Amino acid sequence: MEKLYNYINNIFIVRREENILEFIDDQFNLQIVFNKKIKEGEISLVFLKKNIKEIVINRYKKENEDIVDELFFILNRFYIQTNNIPNYTLKNNIEAPSKIFYKIYLPIENNIEENTLDLISIFSETKNRDIHKKFIKETNYLLKESRQIEIIQTNTKTRRLGYLNLIITLFENSTYFPVSYLEKKIETISSSYNEDLLDYGISNKGDDKGLIKLTRNGSSSKPYVRLLEELNLLTQINNSYILTKQSKIYFHLNKDQKKKNELKNIFKLNELDKLFLLRQILISDTLYIWAIIDIMFIIQEPIDTMSIKKLFVNYIKNDLNIIQHNTNNNLVKKKNLELKKRISSWEKPIVYLEHIIEPRINWLLDLDIVILNNDAKSKRYVLTKAGMNLFYKLSSVFGRNSSKELVLASYFEQNYFDSFNFIFELNKTSEILDKLKIEKYLLEAFKIFKTNAPNRIAASQGIDYVCFKSFLEDGVIIEFEELKKYLQEKNNKFSLDWFNTENDGTLYLR
């Protein structure tokens, strides 16, 4: 505390209120909040120790300056000093919407004598840091907010994404499975892949948890079936399971991949698996999965799941507060408050979080976003190079819109395939649309996804099929929104009706 006392006595006070002192230190605006009114000349070391309540760091963006990088740098330094992540906000300045600013709230604990917070070193290191070139300044995409915060309900057993591939593949034998039958069928088939799972656990520092076992009633596979429903890849009609529009795309592309590589270990995800499942997880579980990625980036070192759990609840509540203060959608605000209330009501959060953290950290492991550090006594995870790139890409969205979880789906409609290319440092290219290739793939889509109505298919299926096919087969990036706009123009072979309320439409073959 003496360091803080000496620090504030050597910088200029710009504002004094009843219980607040405000200082300027270069680019930082610092507010110290006290528990009682400050009298003239009363700022002694004793007064500071007894009455300091909170320190608030404010930082305004200058022209052409990226401060998201700086924000997370300070969060990292604060964690190093205190083993905690402070609450923060990032939002637009009402008077200058193009200029975002952040605030970091540093609570001062009761054990002040033991408090290790050193603002001088934090500010000094921040000013002198190397700005990471990977922090991206995005093109000015128009991002639309969704009407709800996306999270999915999970079970601690659902740790291996390879089982999702296996279950979807079962639909080669039938277009539907009775609810009472599918779960037992999955367990029977899965028993043939136990060796694959063990091999995956040994090689590449993988993990062999999440095994589907044979049971009398299919209870071991049931959590995976529920996960597929949560991810909108499986749905029930007339007491039977069928594939959704999205999973049918993956199903048909996966058949082509299997022809090329019959010996693939299902738990070692290939490019198609990652391309499809990463997007589906990020847009279906935006709040929780993004928070885990943020936390791991802030920590900057291998971390076990228990440590993530200790930070997770407060970090999620802070994210929800940021959304609450930045969205203008009253329905979102209402649902946001309900979700925050539900999270606050968890009686034993550490126990409950096993069903949230363990599955997701293992999905990120399967996707090569994190790697398992086997050198430690306990399992510790750290972001891979692809994981760091994913964080940089997500942080660019945060810099564009503080209600980041509400706009990610909109961002991916315009920039997912390029994002994936950046994350995994592939060599795919963006080119002028090849109309002949687009026509070829669309005609394939009309054959694959044909319905009872002649010469029409769901627009999202046709567009996504072309984007995936172009990326995987030709190494060419076509974005969903880009192709949608092209098909909305006058065209001799195809026409598109798009319905914003459904975020889908109908694609016609003339």
Q: Structural class of the secondary elements?
A: alpha+beta
Beta-strand residue fraction: 15-25%
Mean pLDDT: 88
Count of discrete alpha- or pi-helical segments spanning 4 or more residues: 20
The strand line-up of the biggest sheet is 1-2-3-4-6-5
Radius of gyration: 26 Å
Largest sheet: 6 strands, antiparallel
Distance between the termini: 75 Å
Q: Residue share in helices?
A: 40-55%
Quick structural gist:
With 510 residues, the protein is an alpha+beta fold.
Features:
510 residues; alpha+beta; six-stranded antiparallel beta sheet
Tell me about this structure.
The protein is α+β, with helices and mostly antiparallel strands and 510 residues long. The protein has helices at residues 2-8, 45-51, 68-82, 119-128, 162-169, 179-190, 194-202, 222-230, 245-260, 271-284, 286-299, 305-326, 330-344, 349-352, 354-366, 385-400, 404-423, 435-448, 459-474, 480-488; strands at residues 12-16, 20-25, 28-34, 52-60, 87-93, 96-107, 177-178, 234-237, 240-243, 370-373, 380-383, 429-430, 456-458, 476-477, 494-499, 504-509. The protein contains 20 helices and 16 strands. Strand 8 and strand 9 (240-243) form a beta hairpin.
